[in-house]
Amino acid sequence: MSTRPFPPQKQMTGMLGHPVAENPIDRMFDAVYAHYGLNWQFWKSDIASSHELMAAIHGAKALGYAGFCITVPYKVASIPALDAVDQDVQDIGAANYVTIEQGRTVGHNNDGKGVVKAISKVSPIAGKRVAMLGAGGAGRAMAAEIARAGAAHLTVITRNEAQGQEVAEMVRRVTGIPVAWLHWEGDVTIPEGTQILLNATHLGAAPELGQVPVDWDSIGASITVVDVITNPRITPFLETARNKGCPIANGVEMLVQLAMQIFQAWTGIIPEEAVFQDAVSKALAE
Question: What's the pLDDT tens digit per position in 3-19?
Fold first, then answer.
């Protein structure tokens, strides 16, 4: 009588955030792991509070995770629970993924690198005037990397003045470009001369699909409009912009670009972009 050996335990990876249900990242990563023959799995975890976040980070380390992503609203709050952070996290003040190296959690941030690559497929950033709606954990990283990519000027638009001014000061400190803060009240008027407009808020995500409150009369067809939302690919914000004739860049493209870097950091494998693009399209049932 022959016996079959049990398969090895799957190598776990995942994402911590709230909410996470509509994010396609788990299905995308699992498809890519399967493509490369890896006995790995990606597990999304909806973490209800900052108190539980600390327990989840320590739990992931104890369970032998290779690493995990961090999404809203914990990209800043997660830092005190990590054993170390890289220079990007030190500069930006937010982390979006973690590697676990020799039992130590190390925080990294490539949110901005992902959005820069996504925008660059549509429009050059160097020399452009950029306006960004929101300044949360993802927005902090995006603002810094867009500035590093050569933007001529950045306007940070937030409802919370302290948050917006703090991010503006961070960008000035780490990049040296001129940055202004604009109060977001009602339908915000986008500053004249803006050439790239970025929604770095959660407004427009499934299932609510809410509108981003902006004055569309202040957004001309020459402005490149960008959204960080990953589901749906074309948000109401991007659909309105596209109907005005604006070039658009979507959050799914940003997700692919940053996920490829995270996959390589965790596995040591340099992935093919086409594999990730196909995986995310299937995850979104496109």
Answer: 677 777 899 999 999 99
Name the pairing type of β-strands 40-46 and 196-199: unpaired
In whole angstroms, give the CA distance from residue 156 to residue 140: 10
Residue type, position 142, single letter: M
The answer to whether 245 and 106 have CB atoms below 8 angstroms apart is: no
Cα–Cα distances in angstroms (integers) from residue 148 to residues 90, 143, 239, in the given order: 16, 9, 29
- Residue 9 main-chain phi, psi, to 5 deg: -60, 140
- On the question of a common fold for 11-109+256-283 and 112-249, the answer reads yes
Q: Which residues pair with 100 in a beta bridge?
A: 105
Reference 69, options 113, 25, 118; nearest CA is 25
Q: Helix 161-175 and helix 137-148: axis angle, to 10°?
A: 30
Architecture field, domain 112-249 = 3-Layer(aba) Sandwich (3.40)
Does the domain spanning 11-109+256-283 belong to CATH 3.40.50.1820? no
Task: Report how far residue 136's alpha carbon sits from residue 145's, in angstroms, rounded to the nearest whole number.
Answer: 14
Sheet with 224-227: list strands edge to edge.
Answer: 179-183, 153-158, 129-133, 196-199, 224-227, 248-249
Domain edges within the chain: 11-109+256-283, 112-249
* Predicted model pTM: 0.90
Beta bridge partner(s), residue 47: none
Helix (H, G, I), strand (E, B) or coil at 169: helix
| Predicted confidence (pLDDT) per residue in 22-50, tens digit | 899 999 999 999 999 999 999 999 999 99
Q: Which amino acid is at 52?
A: E
Write out the two tokens for 247.
Answer: 């070039």
Residue pair 76/45 in contact (Cβ under 8 Å)? The answer is no
